[in-house]
Every structure is written in C-alpha cells, then in structure tokens.
Amino acid sequence: MLRTVKPKTARSKRALEKRAPKAVENPKKALFLRGTSCSQITQDALGDLYALRQVHAKRFQKKNAIHPFEDASSLAFFSEKNDCSLLLFGSSNKKRPHTITFARTFDYKILDMLELCLDGESFRSISQFKTQKVPVGTRPLMVFAGTAFESPVPNGFTMAKSMLIDFFRGETSDKIDVEGLRFVVVVTADEPTTAENSDDPSSKAVLRLRVYTIQTKRSGQKLPRVELEEHGPRIDFRIGRIQEPDEAMLKEAMRKAKTNEERTKKNISTDIMGDKLGRIHMGKLDLSQLQTRKMKGLKRERDVLDEAETVVEEAPKRKKKVDI
C-alpha cells in the first residue's frame, strides 16, 4: 500500500483532490496487464478492447507474475498506483488457455473478479474487418440478449453484464447527440445447461460479444434507414472462475453521498410560470352542516313549510256524495 502523506505543493494537492471521493465520480479508468505467459490471441483481444476504451485506459506491455485468484494484492497495488478502478489481466496456461480476468476495485481494494476464457478458433480482431473505424472516445449502445442476464439470483452472466456495462460506460452526460451514436455492442448468452457446475470451462455456456457500426442511409422518408456492419472484435467467452464481492464492501460501494439538492416534496409542483402549486387531500364532506349566508329564502323552516304545502296540494281530493 502507498503511504498517505500531506501534500507539500499545489500540484500534489490538486492530484489528491482529484482522487478524493466525490458526489459525481470521474469516469472509471481501465488498466490492461499481462501475465508471464500470455498467448498472442489474448494479447490481440486485450489490444482491441483497449482500442474501444482508449481515452480512459492504460496498457502495460511488461510481463507481471500475478495470479489474481491466489493473491490479488498486486492488482490492488496497480489500481492505487495508477488510479484505475477497472483491471483486465490476460494470461494463458495449459488448463486455461486464452483467459482475460476482469477485476473491479473499491477504495483501491479488490471488490470482485470474473474470469472469461476466449475461444481462439472463433476470435476475429478489429484489423480483420475492413470497415470504417469508430472515433476515439465514442460511447457505444449496449444490447444484452438472453434470459441468463435477467436471472434474479446473481451468477456469472449477471456479473459479466455488470462488468461490461462498467467497462463501456465512459463519461456520464445529461444530453445525447444522435450523430454521436456510431457503434453498438451486442452481447448474447446461450441458455445455461446442466453441466454449468463442472470445472471444465469448455462445458459452460457461451457468451458472445459482437461490435457493429451504425450507418444511417436515405430511406425516402423522414426517418433514415439504419444498417449495422460488423466492426470487430468478434469474441466468444466462456465463464471461468468467479470471486463474488463481500456484502459489507458492496453495501459501502453502493452507498450514495448526501447532497444539498432539495428533495422532491409530495403533492407540491411548479408550473411553467414558476408558481408553486399544492394539492390537498380531504375526506368526505358533510354538506348538511355547511354554513351558508343568512338569507330568508335559505332558512330551513321555509324549506320545511314549502315541502308541507306541496304535500297537501298533491293529496287527492275526495268526491262528495250527491243525493238524487
């Protein structure tokens, strides 16, 4: 762990303030690392993912003797040293060839990890697709297809969805320019099988990641015709080992800071003119007890007399007997 020292210069003070917790956090940075043995396919996959997130990412080319699921202290050190909360570690061995481990940190401590095993035969890099490349720093649309992502019980697919959303999120903004929607990331998942509990990654369901560029063409109507063209990379994953987050740490990570913004009050709204409107909910009113103006025509006695007179007038008159 790094020592916490008091800043001596204005530059170091600004650097520490930049790393300090905020109500609206900075965009997450991703750090790309490789192990002592890393296949060329894994390096190409890391390079393509780095190209899609090039603005908020760092990549190291040197080999690092790191085993994330045995000892993750080195990943936590790199996270604090480079101020990166997302880490992607590529490695290869005989049992698990072509693997990429996604790791997230909170307070420069490992929160959770997910190991994804690549399929080397179906992998295609960005350079193999002769299409127009997306501009650097563009945020994608994301589509997750498959019932496995909607599971109410946390599993590898739900964690993969959360990891990929954090990886491609980028900067947050209130407004979106339609012209800036240049590509879409589509992730599909096969239906889980009965062999999911085995340790062999080849027996687990496949997670397919595809990237397409969005092209708008004339359609003769008001709305353009939208077409998709594969951009790359084309990666098929199989979920490997998982390290779930600690409940206390996850609760602390999900906690939101209290701000000075006014809370929305019930039954109070403001119209377009800036006038404050309130809504009052009242019970059932008894109108018989309503106090009216003291007018002779509205007195209760007059109403009773009028009702009695109408009853007498409406009573049938008896016929008189006439003696003949």
UniProtKB/TrEMBL annotation:
Keyword Ribonucleoprotein assigned: no
Flavoprotein keyword on record: no
Swiss-Prot/TrEMBL keywords: Nucleus
UniProt lineage: Eukaryota, Fungi, Dikarya, Ascomycota, Pezizomycotina
Compositional bias of kind Basic residues: 1-13
Region (Disordered): 1-22
Pfam families: Brix
Gene: RPF2
Protein name, per record: Ribosome production factor 2 homolog
Localisation: Nucleus, Nucleolus
